[in-house]
Amino acid sequence: QKEVEQDPGPLSVPEGAIVSLNCTYSNSAFQYFMWYRQYSRKGPELLMYTYSSGNKEDGRFTAQVDKSSKYISLFIRDSQPSDSATYLCAMSVQGGSEKLVFGKGTKLTVNP
Amino acid sequence: ETGVTQSPTHLIKTRGQQVTLRCSSQSGHNTVSWYQQALGQGPQFIFQYYREEENGRGNFPPRFSGLQFPNYSSELNVNALELDDSALYLCATTDRAWAGNTIYFGEGSWLTVV
């Protein structure tokens, strides 16, 4: 079993839809949870960073962490064509410079 | 703009050859990590350098090696290239002094081994 599981999709939605992206993990020691956006042939860009359980909101993006279920989610409201990218979840035991364990990424397309 | 620059952006090598990839980061980012991202996969941790010493290694063989220099630049060297080494190689830097969302990735170097 991989440490982090993420459905690779692809996921295709119409503009304005609410998008839900999810990851599950097996290592209960993970405490720091991140979502990265990666455009085609580019490096990952940090979107959201959450410590432990709970919700965090930033504009149209909401990150949720449920440590009891070992499940994290990213919600995108009012999705735009510019949101079309691959979304990677990542986790670490310690924050800062600790190595990140990534999911495979979910490829999202938002259609105008 | 992350302040992390990688070179070259693309290169093609032949199986058995050696390759050196380079990364430079903004001043103060004393920790650099390298990741390998195969097509359709998430990045996999190769190793990390802190103050010019290796500080953690993923499940990669010794033919993957690195260097970090005092000017915050670093290198990833891969010897005896194999076809499966074809991937995007990402450099990520941070200031180790505090935990937080300060891990910056470069745009990567695309390596194709033929």
| Major sheet of chain B | 7 strands, mixed
Label the overall shape of chain B.
globular
Q: How much strand of chain A?
A: over 45%
> SSE order of chain B in H/E notation?
EEEEEEEEEEE
Largest interface: A-B, 26 and 33 residues
Number of helices of chain B: 0
Q: What is the averaged pLDDT score of chain B?
A: 90
Gyration radius from CA atoms of chain A, angstroms = 13 Å
Secondary structure category of chain A:
mainly beta
Helical content of chain B, roughly? under 10%
The arrangement of helices and strands of chain A along the chain is EEEEEEEEEEE
Describe, in plain words, how this protein is organized in 3D.
- The complex is a heterodimer of chains A (112) and B (114).
- With 112 residues, chain A is mainly β.
- In chain A, 0% of the residues lie in helices and 54% in strands.
- Chain B has no helices and eleven strands.
- Chain B has strands at 5-7, 10-13, 19-24, 31-37, 44-50, 53-57, 64-68, 73-78, 87-94, 104-105, 109-113.
- In chain B, strands 2, 4, 5, 6, 9, 10 and 11 form a seven-stranded mixed beta sheet that branches.
- In chain B, a hairpin with a 4-residue loop joins strand 7 and strand 8 (73-78).
- The chains are: A mainly beta (112), B mainly beta (114).
